[in-house]
Amino acid sequence: MLKTISPLISPDLLKVLAEMGHGDEIIFSDAHFPAHSMGPQVIRADGLLVSDLLQAIIPLFELDSYAPPLVMMAAVEGDALDPDVEARYRQALSLQAPCPDITRIDRYAFYERAQKAFAIVITGERAKYGNILLKKGVTP
């Protein structure tokens, strides 16, 4: 345990957050995401919601200010998004500063970004389209 560090942040996740450089990306995925076949390092956060982890890490994590720092998967044609998912994520991310816009990209473009991510954190999130990519910025 460390002071001021949320107990939701595992030692493995804390290490990854510290190792990331500006421009690196991390995925916080729902429980259904095919993370292990993507290639990057996978961290398990079973039983935790993405929104809870976002709230825990945002005091430690500077979002990129030069490129869109938040990306989520767009709904597949014929499917619908649950607006509550994005609302929960925005609320969690806005606890430190106003939440930047969230960019939506199609499923396969999101998978391509995930394959190049620094790490993927698999959570217990069950919401459909519950994956979010965060791009790290320069820490002031």
Automatic annotation (TrEMBL):
Organism this protein belongs to: Citrobacter freundii
Compartments where found? Cytoplasm
User: Top EC class per UniProt?
Assistant: isomerase
Q: Which GO terms describe its biological process?
A: L-fucose metabolic process
Keyword Protein biosynthesis attached: no
Q: Which reaction does it catalyse?
A: alpha-L-fucose = beta-L-fucose; beta-D-ribopyranose = beta-D-ribofuranose
Upper taxonomic lineage: Bacteria, Pseudomonadati, Pseudomonadota, Gammaproteobacteria, Enterobacterales
What this protein is called in its record is L-fucose mutarotase
Give binding positions for substrate. 30, 107, 129-131
